[in-house]
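PROTEIN DESIGN WORKSHEET
SECTION A - STRUCTURE
LENGTH: 472
TOKENS:
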């Protein structure tokens, strides 16, 4: 009994210390360049008790006699950002960063002496991850899911295991043919936030690693908010520089944003330009076009003609003889058969969370490429979940309070209530099925309390999650 009490006391003290430090800047670490006259790569690491990071702060101080460069590296030869050093050093970097480690490369140009110190901290989102909440919420919604699943078991993840050949009616992608031949391959994904924070990219990387260990390099060159004008401008830097064997391209979802006034013809011109330049750099490069998951609610309202932009991608793929990965039909099917799960997988109405990628996007991509299903859940990356959580945390204290949580969904409600009359119609939501599923009292109106209440279990289910360490 005494032993148990002491153990419990120990846990309480550890938790108290952890809580104290996490509120007062826990996680800062320091490192110095060993010899400023020599090239050095320093690997920064998060502390052991931290969760997955989403932000990296680095403070540089010291003095360089001569000139040198310091870079935060994205890949072995790919600087993410670089700063020239000369004389007194005193500056800070802050970046979105979603990896447990970060490589800093120090390169002296003409240095005779000095010193350079780095203080750094990976910021993690704390114990709350939206993804874990959403798995909980899906469990709550399961009776509904089961009923629908037995009626229509056609969501990609429910398909029987496929052979490595994928759909036998389609020839294998060159990517898979080359991997099977034992060749190393570089795949670059290019597009919008649906790729940039799409967990499907990391999950695809995991599946490739499982089936062809060490052979495939997956580089995510996409950018949140980007449209094809950005793609055309950044193609060299984000794609061609990696000398890819396969490129996946999607920009239709942002070209379709009406207020950006990118016409279908203009978007097509950009796409054709990118394709021509990829093929000019390497005629053997395999280009695969993508049509992504369909937006609903206000994100669809902002894109009234998205069907025309998506069709343009299908037309270009057909005209050029390219493979097209179409996420649309699997997502549409989920929206019709199980609208509640659809919204839980993509709660801001456009960005699939990790759970959404696992359920729909990744199985579609993996099957279209001609890979076996594998285990995409081996990737625990959840950039989009963290991003939404970051948006919720208005006070930026790394915890989401109930007030912040509810305020986020109230804001989402208002965005979807296009005419601000306090009621979202099926037309405003662009889905009668989703509207019916959220209209809890079935009076034909979807009001703010109903909308916010739908998401409430995501917060309430977090309670046992946060207190679980004390139970051990
Ligand atoms: Ca907060
Ligand atoms: Ca309305
Ligand atoms: Ca109602």
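SECTION B - SEQUENCE
RESIDUE ASSIGNMENT:
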């Amino acid at each position: 009994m005494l032993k148990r009490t002491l153990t419990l006391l120990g846990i309480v003290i550890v938790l108290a210390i952890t809580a104290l430090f996490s509120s007062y800047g826990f996680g800062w670490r320091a490192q110095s360049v060993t010899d400023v006259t020599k090239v050095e790569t320093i690997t920064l690491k998060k502390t052991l008790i931290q969760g997955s990071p989403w932000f990296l702060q680095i403070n540089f101080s010291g003095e360089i006699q001569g000139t040198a460069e310091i870079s935060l590296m994205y890949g072995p030869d790919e600087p993410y950002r670089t700063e020239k050093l000369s004389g007194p050093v005193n500056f800070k970097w802050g970046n979105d960063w979603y990896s447990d480690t970060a490589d800093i490369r120090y390169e002296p140009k003409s240095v005779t002496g000095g010193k350079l110190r780095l203080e750094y901290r990976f910021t993690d989102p704390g114990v709350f991850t939206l993804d874990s909440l959403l798995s909980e919420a899906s469990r709550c919604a399961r009776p509904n899911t089961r009923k629908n699943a037995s009626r229509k078991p056609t969501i990609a993840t429910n398909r029987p295991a496929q052979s490595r050949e994928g759909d036998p009616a389609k020839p294998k992608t060159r990517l898979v043919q080359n991997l099977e031949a034992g060749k190393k391959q570089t795949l670059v994904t290019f597009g919008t936030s649906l790729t940039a924070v799409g967990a499907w990219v990391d999950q695809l990387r995991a599946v490739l690693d499982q089936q062809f260990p060490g052979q495939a390099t997956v580089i995510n060159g996409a950018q949140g908010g980007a449209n094809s004008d950005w793609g055309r401008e950044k193609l060299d830097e984000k794609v061609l520089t990696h000398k890819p064997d396969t490129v996946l391209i999607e920009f239709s979802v942002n070209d379709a944003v009406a207020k950006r006034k990118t016409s279908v013809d203009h978007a097509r011109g950009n796409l054709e330009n990118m394709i021509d330049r990829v093929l000019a750099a390497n005629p053997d490069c395999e280009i695969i076009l993508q049509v992504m998951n369909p937006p609903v609610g206000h994100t669809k309202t902002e894109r009234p003609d998205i069907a025309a932009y998506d069709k343009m991608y299908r037309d270009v793929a057909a005209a050029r003889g390219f493979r097209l990965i179409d996420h649309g039909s699997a997502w549409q099917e989920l929206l019709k058969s199980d609208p509640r799960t659809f919204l839980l997988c993509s709660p801001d109405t456009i960005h699939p969370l990790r759970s959404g990628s696992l359920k729909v996007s990744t199985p579609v991509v993996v099957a279209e490429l001609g890979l076996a299903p594998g285990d995409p859940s081996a990737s625990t990356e959840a950039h989009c979940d963290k991003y939404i959580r970051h948006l919720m945390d208005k006070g930026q204290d790394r915890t989401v309070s109930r007030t912040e949580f509810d305020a986020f969904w109230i804001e989402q409600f208002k965005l979807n209530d296009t005419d601000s009359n306090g009621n979202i119609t099926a037309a405003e939501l662009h889905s009668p099925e989703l509207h019916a599923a959220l209209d809890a009292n079935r009076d034909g109106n979807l009001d703010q309390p109903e909308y916010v209440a739908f998401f409430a279990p995501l917060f309430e289910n977090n309670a046992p999650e946060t207190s679980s360490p004390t139970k051990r």
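SECTION C - NOTES
Residues 130-380 form a domain with the Rossmann fold fold (CATH 3.40.50.1110).
The chain has 20 helices and twelve strands.
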